[in-house]
Design brief:
- The complex is a heterodimer of chains A (242) and B (163).
- Chain A has 242 residues and is mainly α.
- Chain A has a domain of 163 residues.
- Chain A has eleven helices and two strands, in the order ααααααααββααα.
- In chain A, α1 crosses α8 and α4 crosses α7.
- Chain A is globular, with a radius of gyration of 20 Å.
- Chain B has two domains: 101 residues; 53 residues, no CATH class.
- The chains are: A mainly alpha (242), B mainly alpha (163).
- Chains A and B meet through α1, α3, α4, α5 and α8 of A and α3 and α7 of B.
Chain lengths: 242, 163
Amino acid sequence: MADFLEIQSSDRTGWLTISEPQLLSQEEVEIQTIYSYLQLVDTSSLISKHVRGPVYKLFPPSVRATIRAHIACRHWIISKIAAQGIGKRIRQSRIELLLQAIEISRNRSQGVFVDGIGESPVVRSFVETVLTSALLSPQSRLFARVWQDVATKRGASLDSFETFISTPLASVTGRKPTVDFGWILERMIEIISLPDTLRDEGDGVGLVNFEKRRCVETRPVYTMIIDATTGTSVTSPILYRH
Amino acid sequence: MLLRLFDTTLPSAAPSYHDHTDDANLRLSILTVLSDWITQGGGAQDLLDKPDICRELRHFLHNDEKHAVPEGVSKESVDRPAWEEVQDLRKSFVISFERLIRRPSLSALFVHEPGPSERAYGPHPPDIDDIDVEDLLGCLDAIGATAFRYVQPEVSFIRLSCK
């Protein structure tokens, strides 16, 4: 699987989509996630000249099952947010419930801290990704008035989803949620994107990129992958050791 | 190709003096290969990506006419046990096929530590207007955990290495 991602990344146009950009209004734009993007990106010709279609179809069945789980749950949540025939109040209470679920989920993920990833101190969980992706879907964003009311109630701004999520003061006890597999894929691609060797500007000698090697050996991605294969959650103490 | 091979065992394709034991063994082999592919080889996920093949295989498995025991095999026939074995395999294959194309294999689950999947949430989605936020979290997390644990050890993530 890492081989596929690596070859796809070595193709200069590997991560570009061939579909023509459609003229959509801002409300209709689908916010991409790693899941939606992997379904759009075609298999690179470097992987195979004969295989056509999205690159994710080459992934092992078990990985595709995790992608399917995300898609199925996301669709279910969207169907509840954008359901027809429910009043404004019910829709608002559903959105409020989902926002609370995100808050609790993020709070429970706090212990899974990753050093070196400053912009994301909380490792994204499966639940958080599903709920966030569904709440930010165009179908959900269509209900602007409901979102306005939710924003007013929470003192949030419609321009930033982050402002809707408040951090509870008291620590919420409970199990750490399952890590989002898409997050692991993103970290894998991030590490793959680092060059294997660095060229010294002075004498032009190629040097081993120890930073990449260190990432592969010690970053939680590696640890979590092993955890995933043994069925344990990602709360392994090794995560804190880095 | 396997399904075409299966068709050669049908009474219409075989002359009357044909050896029914060979037919039973051939059917058994074909069903075993297909079953192994679906249950152990991750074929269920492949089928979900290829609905045409999924439909064709389902049609094949549910086609009683195709799987009927040839008329030439009587109850007292020496070939009977082999044919019964074929029938039994087909029945169990149909059950596992229908189960696996719906959700990840439960056989892949193993409890390493107390996990969210220990609680059964039932086959039906909850009523979102009548669910506690904790239950909603648990329900979704159980799905995520189940899918995550299905990631099999043979997936060679560890091959992510510097050259």
